[in-house]
Amino acid sequence: MRVVAAMSGGVDSAVAAARVMEAGHEVVGVHLALSQQAATLRESARGCCTIEDAGDARRVADRLGIPFYVWDLAERFRHDVVDDFVAEYEAGRTPNPCLRCNEKIKFAALLDKALALGFDAVATGHYAQVVERADGGRELHRAVDPAKDQSYVLGVLDADQLARSLFPLGGSTKPQVREEARERGFSVARKPDSHDICFVADGDTRGWLTRRLGERPGEVVDESGRVVGQHAGSYGFTVGQRRGLGLDRSTLDGAPRFVLEVDAARNRVVVGPQELLGVDVLVGDHARWCGPAPEGVVTVGAQLRAHGEEVPATARADGDRLHVRLERRVRGVAPGQSVVLYDGTRVVGSATVAQATRATTASRAATDRR
């Protein structure tokens, strides 16, 4: 096959490219320029897509002896990922930009361009496994290394995208990958992993949003509607947040408060005690399936964060919407997060949380009796 190896400049994509090449495929390395004003150097281990990263990727490609190109997708990234991120927070939701980048950039814009140029597949350094069934279909599964498993952020892939995707690192651990990079003489063998949100290089999401949206003062209220503080913009808060709430301590009983709701329409942040955070009924939109959509009510595992715990659940697909009932309450689930469904290690699909509520006491008791 002719394969585009997406090379970020990190150790994972470097080893992934090497493995695809050694498997006998014709490989071309591609670095995605996603920033319209790329920094020269990284800030610590935060961020990615700097000029330094592009240089690291090029040096690996040179060592492998494969062609290397930089594809400018900065405008598409700004529109589909960065602008979407701002709009979601402005609407009181908490998005996951990594899922949006995988859906819109790496396995849409990049894959579409690769296919248009005559390539057969895209390989990345994600830690996940593709399993081929006897009928030729492909399934997405968790990686063997649970600490590095990235199947959650790949839960937005559909069957067609999965058929054109290669994940050579799914059967390895991170120490094994770093050792292989060292043995191959890659200069990135000890390069730190990028983390957090790549385009918020300093990690200060609230400050980053404030610079784009400006201050929008409003009230912080408790669950009864009583004003207990002030804020500079409801977009700077997310459900489950405890710190930086701007509360008037003199009006409280000393117990900690958490964000229960971000009411963007009224520019209010609602806070309350931790016990009110638990939810067990989710409605998701923008459902995506890694294979056929499930029929009827199915038993699954539901994961709500990239490295969060999988919770037993039942789910029902309804067109573009997904209804999920968790077997136990989970705290801090915010609209805009993604829920990814699993059947064992297999990724079934995903949806974006639109509503997160509690089952009534009676319905919860009925569920517990079953």
Automatic annotation (TrEMBL):
The record marks 126, 337 as: Interaction with tRNA. It catalyses: S-sulfanyl-L-cysteinyl-[protein] + uridine(34) in tRNA + AH2 + ATP = 2-thiouridine(34) in tRNA + L-cysteinyl-[protein] + A + AMP + diphosphate + H(+). GO terms for cellular component: cytoplasm. InterPro entries: MnmA-like, MnmA-like_C, MnmA-like_central, MnmA-like_central_sf, Rossmann-like_a/b/a_fold. Keywords: ATP-binding, Cytoplasm, Disulfide bond, Methyltransferase, Nucleotide-binding, RNA-binding, Transferase, tRNA processing, tRNA-binding. Residues 148-150 are annotated as: Interaction with tRNA. It is found in: Cytoplasm. Its main location: cytoplasm. The active site is at 101 (nucleophile), 198 (cysteine persulfide intermediate). Disulfide bonds join 101-198. Residues 282-353 form the tRNA-specific 2-thiouridylase MnmA-like C-terminal domain. Its EC number is 2.8.1.13. ATP binds at residues 6-13, 32, 125. Residues 208-272 form the tRNA-specific 2-thiouridylase MnmA-like central domain. One of its GO terms (biological process) is methylation. GO terms for molecular function: ATP binding; methyltransferase activity; tRNA binding; tRNA-uridine 2-sulfurtransferase activity. Catalyzes the 2-thiolation of uridine at the wobble position (U34) of tRNA, leading to the formation of s(2)U34. Belongs to the MnmA/TRMU family. This is tRNA-specific 2-thiouridylase MnmA. It comes from Lapillicoccus jejuensis. The lineage of its organism: Bacteria, Bacillati, Actinomycetota, Actinomycetes, Micrococcales.
